[in-house]
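=== Structure Prediction Worksheet ===
Name of assembly: unnamed complex
Input type: mixed (protein and possibly other molecules)
Chain count: two
Listed entries:
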Amino acid sequence: MMLATEHLIIAPILIPLIAGALMLLYDESQRKAKLGISIGSTIALLFVAIELLNRSKGSPLSGGNEISFYLLGDWAVPFGIILVLDRLSALMLLLVALLAIPTMIYAGANWHKQGQHFNSMFQFLLMGLNGAFLTGDIFNLFVFFEVLLAASYGLLLHGSGQVKVRAGIHYIAMNLAGSLFFLIGVSLIYGVTGTLSMAHLSQMVVNIPASERPLFHAGAAIMGVAFLVKAGLWPLSFWLPITYMASAAPVAAMFSVMTKVGVYVILRLSMLFFGLGAGASAGFGAEVLIWGGMATMVFGMLGVLSSQSLGRMAAHLVLISSGTVLAVIGLALSGGGSSMLSGALYYMVSSTLATATLFLLLEPMSREEGGIAAMLALTADAYGLEKDEDEDEEVGLAIPGTMTILGLSFGVCLLVLAGLPPLSGFIGKVAILSGMLGVGGVPAYLTWTFLAVLMISGFATILGLVRIGIQTFWASDSKPPKVLAMEFAPVILLVAMMLAITVKGDSVLRYTDATSRALHDPLVYSDGVFSTRRTVGAEDQE
Amino acid sequence: MEIVLSAAIGVFAASGIWLLLRPRTFQVIIGLCLLSYAVNIFIFSMGRLTIGKPAIMPKGGWINAAEYADPLPQALVLTAIVISFATTALFLVVMIASKGLTGTDHVDGREPDRSGETK
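=== Predicted Assembly ===
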């Protein structure tokens, strides 16, 4: 049993890998079996994530900052690749699992029939995401990034059609170029320090000679570009709205956590490499994150105000959310204190759930305008599917009072995204602002600029969403759309999650508080990695 | 050797970037290939340049590491080649699909207006 609990850390990578590979063996006609496997795998992931989260909370003995390690292939640190599970990774794993279940159910209603291997690609995407959150080695991070990107290329194109292929070309070209940046950065860092382990690097940063330091900074900055492209920092974000609008609803919902991978890596690496203990490198890149983050918020805000369709608006809301978190990371990096960062983590969780819900709501809301019908006809054409077969299967349990429920869920998303009381968006924003004003480690002009941008972006969100809401729910005289229960259950699930993190706000905030304090103390991380002993060949070590 | 290598990286990268910014899908994919060559050679050079030195130490005991080439960048470059090859192949498929669906090989999926465009 001891063995099993130890190996649980790698389970979030192995479960989707095995499930995804298994489903490749099934024929496309056995969709029910595939769907069963995928949902089973995501539920297993959720349980693993909860268990890992509990483990990372640790006991009071370790100061509530319990980091677990897993040596891949039992190679000694720092030569082998290590998986690290700390509070931040556990939080991200849980967020992915929480999003994956509703998305998978939603896809099961319709979307997974629109092309091939949807379920497998979805699982591989989860594998890449989980791997990126767990790894403690920057080259291994590259590999997991490629896994998740390769899966995301397939998912984006899922359902085919001109719009998707056109957006796909831009998205793939952008990300291939980004991967090359990643490689240049990694190899520069390796050239300067001779290591790829994050923990080893974080210990070495202080001692890099002054002549080599600019090279190290250049490497980190070039690598950072790759992550900022994913996170959608302005001006690297122009691909994002087009891509998200073009992708299928469940895919877009899952993509809303993909921008958070970029944010996660930036947070992880900047806190490890350029935290307060990094000597001459402390705070490197903070200005870029602060101003870039705020520019992203402004860009997203203008986008929200100018968009005519909900899809474009939701994509810009993703930008606002990641811009806010990036700006706070920058502020925390320049000494803004840990409680602000804790608020940002909370905000990130709630806004990711809200944008994902919005993407799932989008398609049922615009169904009366022929959204899905047109799409289905198109893909049926492209794949030469039997049309009558599709229509037969579509008859399912439709829900009554569609518009009311759709409207209420939409309202919840609006409150969360705009940061209005009483829901979680408000708590998150208050936590960020009170952390920032309370500690006072940030120059006053930055504090007030950020505050203004945050408030105005919330206001713009209200304006934009309310306008769309009025058009759809009040001013429309068409017949209410038919929405299947299977498409609706996930939305309810997500709304319930948002309500849950609002009600349980104090315990979530306590968790993110400890997470953010742990992030400010990278020594625990790096010392922990180096004290990890091999399990089998321990006696061979000197 | 350093001059030749850095010149090669520079030429590859410069032509790669130029091609990447061109409007035809074929140019873009060739540009990405050239760029990835540049990056691969660059990764390789980060293990320091050596001639005729083995990358694997004999078993038993610690010996002068300066006598050996750094094996890690070689492993990294191998991984990078495999991954970029696979993703480029995937990209090629998407491009062919785009040509089939839109009837043009322009990256935007449609020909720009002829008025300011010189091709």
